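Lecture notes, unit on protein representations.

Consider one protein chain, 194 amino acids long.
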Amino acid sequence: MGVRQGSGQGSDGQAVIHFRAAGVTLLLAHLLFVGWLTLRPLDVPWTAAANFEPFASIRNDLALGPAEALSRIGGALLLLAPLGVLLPMAGGRVFVSPWVSLLRTVAAGALISLAIELGQTGVPGQVVDIDSVLLNTTGVVVAHLLVVPVCRARLRRRGVPGVRDLPRYRQETRLRDEAPGGSTPTISRVGIAP
């Protein structure tokens, strides 16, 4: 969570640990599922060429009709969308800037999507598609924006165990870390004579 859990927090610290553990477990389970789904060999009679032109496969999907386009584009948006929630949950940070959280989550989601696409280069029946990276990352952004800020605000308001005492905990930690006689004096830098 970015905060050391001391023995003085008791069950509050345990709740935070369980929350993070659940996030890590769900994150790993989702990544295993996505890996199995996207990196398994497919027995197909032919495969399309790799797509390195942005929006080309999206245009092709739209040309197939609304139902097929919704299925293909929607599937790509939903594939990694849970990462938009699971990555912050596994991190366990409640007091973090919304922009920093979004940036971290989107960067991690984009890198995971790119790693999947690069991994598909050696898998029979799978092809690399830059639009998959764009759609997967968009799904992560949308899921994060819809869920994470609202949940963090609720957790702050409700005073989730381990969260409501964070400002007091930081103050106690700062006071405990100072020496008994006060802070150590520092000497300003003095130039050395030649």
